[in-house]
Amino acid sequence: MRPAPGEVLHFSEDPAITRFAPHVAVTARQPEAYVWAVDAERAPDYWFPRQCPRAMAWTTPSTTDADRSHILGPGGGDRVHAIEYGWLEQMRSTRLFAYRFDASAFRPFGSPVSHALVATSEVQPLGPPEPVGDLLELHEEAGIQLRVLPNLWPFVDAAAESTLGFSGIRLRNARPRASELQR
User: Fold this and answer.
1) What ranges make up the beta strands (E) of 45-177?
2) What average pLDDT does the chain have?
């Protein structure tokens, strides 16, 4: 489930959204109001239940062989996504929908590397939302390794310190770090 050329996607568990107006998300780190979307490269970051904590790592031109081997592992392809066991049933059962938009209304967001696209005025979907389908199958079809872990933090720390590209989403919903449990 990726956008066609000239399109961007917004993923939601709600198939009945009729109005996409800029707003400041509860979790926002910036005060500006936006409509959020992603391009084809970042779409897989959102093949998850909305609140599911996840970490993603992928190869880049500067990725070392050692980091590739250590983080992705043998047969791991070029990209890995990680979630916790506590979210596996929701990965299996969540119904996710994709809304398509004309990309011309959006601009890149994020620095130094764009991780999303934003619009500052109301935008209309190009059609009705499309069911995304089985989230595990999406990962398999895209050749993305999906790793299920007892706790995300060791993976997050290793990937973030590596030469791989890295992103974490909804990490505040992850289980506490082992060091936090010992306090």
Assistant:
1) 54-58, 79-84, 97-102, 107-109, 116-119, 130-131, 145-149, 165-169
2) 92
Residues β-bridged to residue 108:
117
* Residue 118 dihedral angles phi and psi, to the nearest 5°: -135, 150
Quick one: three-class SS letters along 22-70?
CECCCCCCCCCCEEEEECCCCHHHHCCCCCCCEEEEECCCCCCHHHHHH
Amino acid at 35: V
Ranges of residues in the chain with a pLDDT under 50 are none
In a domain, 180, yes or no: no
Over pLDDT 90: what percentage of the chain?
Answer: 83
Provide the β-strand partners of residue 145. 80
* C-alpha to C-alpha distance for 54 and 82, rounded to whole angstroms: 6
Least Cα distance to 173 among 95, 110, 83 occurs for 83
Look up the domain containing 28 and give its range: 7-175
Neighbouring C-alpha atoms within 13 Å toward the C-beta of 93? 5
| Residue 30 within any structural domain of the chain | yes
In angstroms, what is the C-alpha Rg of the chain? Answer: 17
Q: Is residue 1 part of a domain?
A: no
- Asked whether the whole model's pTM tops 0.85, one would answer yes
pLDDT at 179: 73
182 found inside a domain:
no
